[in-house]
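In the previous lecture we treated proteins in isolation. Real proteins rarely work alone, and many bind small molecules. This record shows how such a complex is specified: first the sequence, then the SMILES for zinc ion.
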Amino acid sequence: MDQAIALVALSEKDLEIVRATKKLSELPEKHAILEVRHKLREIEAIAEKATLYVAQLEAAQKRAEDETATISAHIVAEQAKVDSGVISNHKELQSLSREIDSLSRQKDKKENEVLTAMEKLETGRAQAAKVAETIEKGHAKEAQLIERFQSIGGALQREIDLATKQRATLAGVLKPELLARYEALRVSKHGLGVGVLHGLQCSACRIELPSESVLALNNAGVPIAECPSCKRLLVIGMENGS
Ligand SMILES: [Zn+2]
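The predicted 3D structure, ligand included, written as C-alpha cells:
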C-alpha cells in the first residue's frame, strides 16, 4: 500500500477510535446509572431511618401494653381484696377504693397511649412500605439501564476493538520513521497528525496557504510534506481523500 494512502487511512482510523471511545465514555446510560445509584443511596438512608422509627414505635406500643396489663392485674388484685370481705375496717376500705380509682385513671391513660402508639405505628409502617417500594422501582430502573448500557456499550467496544486491529495493520505498512513522526504529531497536535492538501487548504488546520507555497509543494513531487502553517504531515496530490 502507498505510504500516503496508508497514512491518511491510519489517521482516519485513529479519529474513528477516539470518537467511539469518547462516545462509550459519555453514553447517557452511564450517567443515568450513576444518578439512579446516587438516588438509591439517599432513599436507602431514609429506609434505614424509617425501619428504626417503626422499631421504636413497636417498642413504645409494647411498653404501653405491658404497663396497662400490670395496672389491670393490680386493679383485679385490689378489687379481689374488697370483694373478699376480709377487710372490714371502713377507712381501710375507703383507702383501697381510692387506690382502685387512681389505678383505673392510670389504666385509661395507658390505654390511650397504646392507641396513640398504634396510630403512629400504622402511619410509620405505611411510610416505610412506600420507601421500600421506591427502592424496588429504583433497582428495576438501574437493572434496565445496565442492560441498555451493556448492549450499546458492547457494540461500541466491538467497533473499537475492530478499528484498533485495523489501525495496527495500517501502522505496519508505514515506514518506522514516518510512523514515529505521525505518532509524535498526534500527541502534540490534539490527536490529529495529518492533513491533506485540498486546493490551497490544509484539511487539518483549515488554513488557506499562500499560493506560492502550494505551488512549491505540488512541484516538489513529494507525496508527504509538512504543512507550512500547522507543521503537521501534509499529504499532497490526494484531493478529496481519494
Ligand atoms: Zn495545516
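Summary for your notes: The chain has five helices and four strands. The domain at 24-172 is CATH 1.10.287.1700 (Helix Hairpins).
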